Amino acid sequence: MIKIAYEQIATWIEQNIALFSLITVWSLAWKGIALWRCGRNKQLVWFIAVLVTNTLGIIPIIYLVFFQKKRK
Hints:
Elements: H1 2-15, H2 17-40, H3 44-52, H4 58-67
Helix pairs in contact: 2-3, 2-4
């Protein structure tokens, strides 16, 4: 069963390589920005949450919009 799921995922990626690449770049960009800001603001809990989870940029965007410390 796992082998079948893996083969289906691999086939989907091969058929949609452009979309998969776009999703990967999107996610990495948001994650990178959020990790940079978490580190600079010394927000360890958010840093770990953003680092560990893979949510297509949703958690990094939430952090950047609502929870990062505002600069003076």
